Amino acid sequence: MKRYLPLFGFLVLVGLFGWGIWWNSRHDMTAVPSPLINKAAPPFNLPKLYAPTEYVSKAMLLGKPYLVNVFASWCVACLEEHPVWMAHASGLGVPLIGYDYKDPPQDAKAWLAKHGNPFSVVVTDRSGRTAINFGVYGVPETYLIDSRGIIRWKHIGPVTPAVIRDKLVPLLRAVGAHPDEAD
Amino acid sequence: MRHWLFAIMMLVLISFAAHAIGPLPFRNNAERLRFQNLTSQLRCLVCQNESLASSNAKLAQDLRALVFKMMQAGKTNPQIKQYLVNRYSDYVLYDPPLKPSNYALWFGPFIFLILGGLGVLLYLRRRTSSAATAPPPGDDDW
Fold this sequence. Notes:
The complex is a heterodimer of chains A (183) and B (142). Chain A is α/β, with parallel strands linked by helices. In chain A, 38% of the residues lie in helices and 19% in strands. Chain A has a single domain, classed as Glutaredoxin. In chain A, the strands form two sheets. In chain A, strands 5-4-3-6-7 form a five-stranded mixed β-sheet. In chain A, strands 1-2 form a two-stranded antiparallel ribbon. The longest helix of chain A has 22 residues, at 5-26. Chain A is elongated, with a radius of gyration of 20 Å. With 142 residues, chain B is mainly α. Chain B has two domains: 18-97, Helicase, Ruva Protein, domain 3 (Orthogonal Bundle), CATH 1.10.8; 98-133.
């Protein structure tokens, strides 16, 4: 019996490491939980990409739920999620606001011209100062803000059709929007 | 000649390092030390194994500038930390606060220590009791 003790110890370690690998493959270890969920979105007032003298503010958007997608032309993962927004943005039942993060406007315009523009409006935050209030630490990030200006959901990293179907659509219904049934 | 080349290479490297930290107009040495001390206690969100003081990520540069601005505005260290925690959660702190959601982190090691200690204690007690009942050791097992 005693001679099997090392084997037993080895199997315990295999179990622990195996569990660690399994757990890590299902969780994003770099994801930072946002303390802003179910709290009021920070006030913002940002210029439009295509009309820099016009601003979009939080106050203007109150009354209806909306999505904010933080992206940048220099962001590789944004290119990965871009086709998903191109395919699904019109069926979400809420406006999708593009939030151009730390990006020269001409670069963002060229990027959107090349890959398509799924956004109902694009605002720019070239300094990234407002993004700090949102707790943005990487792009892409996506926020769902309800009609009272409360952040209801935050997704870090590229959205996928599965994320939209399983997480976003139920939440959109919960905030009173009417996303298309068809996926 | 080679010494000169080496010296020039080192200077280039040093200038890169200096650029990574970024020049901030500190008023005095005490302020600079306070800034370095504070930013080394804060975690860079983008590359979580680096502190805000050492990271060269764009966001870390922005946050360093923000910390500097808040210091200039007369904010205390706890106020600056709270400002960042409100936006980025406790993850920004290298020293996690003692609160219910962090109890496992704080007390987990002690629980393992107690469990391990109990295991050792049981093992030792069993060994001494079996030694007491076992026949006295002879000199035949060498």
